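Example A, followed by Example B.
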Amino acid sequence: MSCEEKGRLAMEYDTATSKFSEAVRELHRRMGTSKEEYNRLERASNEARVKSEQARLAFEQHIAAHRC
């Protein structure tokens, strides 16, 4: 039996981690840019990291609560 909510949360987590990975790649690629641009990219990377962590937590909490 498949849990639709678990699948949805897994997809959200996958999307969030992909966005975080891309933000980090962009930050690395743009090293040596202006301080303002670097700070903007760093903020974007940190925001993506937080969203990824939130998605992971939601996924893990669902699994723990529903045992699926």
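Example B, a separate protein, is given below in the same form.
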Amino acid sequence: MAISTAKAAEIILDNAVQTHEKQIQMLDLVDYVEPDAGAMQNSGNFIWSNVQQHAPIISGWDMTGSETEIIEETYPSVLGTPKNDMVEVRIDDLRDEGFWKRRGVESGLKQASELNRAIAALIANTGSMFYRSTATSGYDFIAEAQALCSERQLADGAMYFALNDRDNLAFGSDLAARQTLQGRPEQTWKTGQIGQNIAGFDVYNASFLPNLAGGADPATTVTADVSLKPEGGSVDATTGVVTNVDYRVGTIAVTASANYNVGDRVTFANGGTTVKALALTDKTDTGQAMTFTIVAKPSGTSIQVYPKPIAADDAALSTLEKAYANIDTQILNTATVNRVNTDASNKTNIFWKKDSVEVIGGNIPAGYFKQFGGMKVVEQTMSNGQKMYLMYDADIKTAKASWRLFTWYGITNRNPSANGVAVTA
């Protein structure tokens, strides 16, 4: 039975959307926003967003001269390029409706898999928390992440943990035996969920987690005292142009950066004493070494890390700036840089606060495309808010039909201090 081109297009898109929604896992576990399309076009497809402010507590009765300003830290969210499935076939290949259905299913599966992989890879490559564990109990393994998050006063809101297949094989029976999903709907298992509220995390199995490259500690040292401060956007006094600053990045001068990998987790030690992490709100010393992720190597003698190290004892900082401190003491000249991902390669497990990772969705004026000669476009908004598009056309000279199915999004680690990696020893 013949079908109309509109019907055929709907078959592809419907099957792609249905498969995508069944396979999606990570998007539902992070924040999703869709900025104003016109604003994104005018800004070059990126947007600056604000993060939580910090305020100092100042003791005393007379506050004359003690007032502070407000530092509004920012980070950029970038809308990437569309993820496409572009197909061209001869018209006689389109006689079987099942042909369209099967390709729609495959397109949706690949789109969902790519999004899952990309979100997981971002956390694995840029999340700053890290630990390497010899625990044999699944609960104990995950509880280390809970301790890190609680010490840093991050454990509010939804928290998630994803286990790779091999570690799930080792820990899965222990976690499932805790009956944290007793009475669960069957849909829960379809998302790969292993358990709820295990050491404060909803735990999932994820086959798309990447490896983390590492190796022996390169034993580099810092070559200058690190004195970094929180910065808000600045306004040019003459032009009025606002210049924003990415609050996450700190640049540190070192003797040599060549032997480090982007993605390495490192700690710093002054005279053999590690620089410690502080609690977010009350600045309590957690007693645990602060871990950082190398996100770039601008030169052979510098590294860039997430998060920016801001020291509570830095005399150069104001009272307000110290309210943003995340480490107990300055990283000093000759401090050692210590790589802590010491395996040559290890499969990652990841953990994160839901609001620490953000996916921004892009949209096109699909209706305008319908006005162009021959071209058609259909779209659907999925249950998670993301849009999927299908454009299609045909050429009578070649008797070929073509279609382009795509999604459009960008992923941002907006708070790398609230997500990270765990590996087994």
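On Example B: The two ends are 60 Å apart (CA to CA).
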